[in-house]
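Schema walk-through. Below, the input block comes first and the output block second. Nothing else is stored per chain. Lengths vary across the set, and this one has 125 residues.
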Amino acid sequence: VQLQASGGGLVQAGGSLRLSCAASGRTFSDYVMGWFRQAPGKEREFVAAIRWSAGTTYYADSVKGRFTISRDNAKNMVYLQMSSLKPEDTAVYYCAAALRIIVSMMRLPSSYDYWGQGTQVTVSS
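--- output ---
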């Protein structure tokens, strides 16, 4: 399994970015795809997740209403549309995949089996 994250960059506060995660190596219909982020000196934290087959989405409270996770079945892609960005959103963002996990496990990095390499998002004030 390979996950390739891209789309990060430098943006001003209030701006938008769309992150992409290209997934390959298997069928992901039974997987939960997640986005996490890690700022310098901080632990990796949950941002959003989506059940690949059903499309059900889950968000951290800190991004709810500003970020949208989605997937494209035909392209095996997962996206994170980020709007109204704040300086505190600055971090390295990672996509991850987990097989058949329940909702209570989605926020835990240890629940995920595969990780992408990360993409830097910097929001200037």
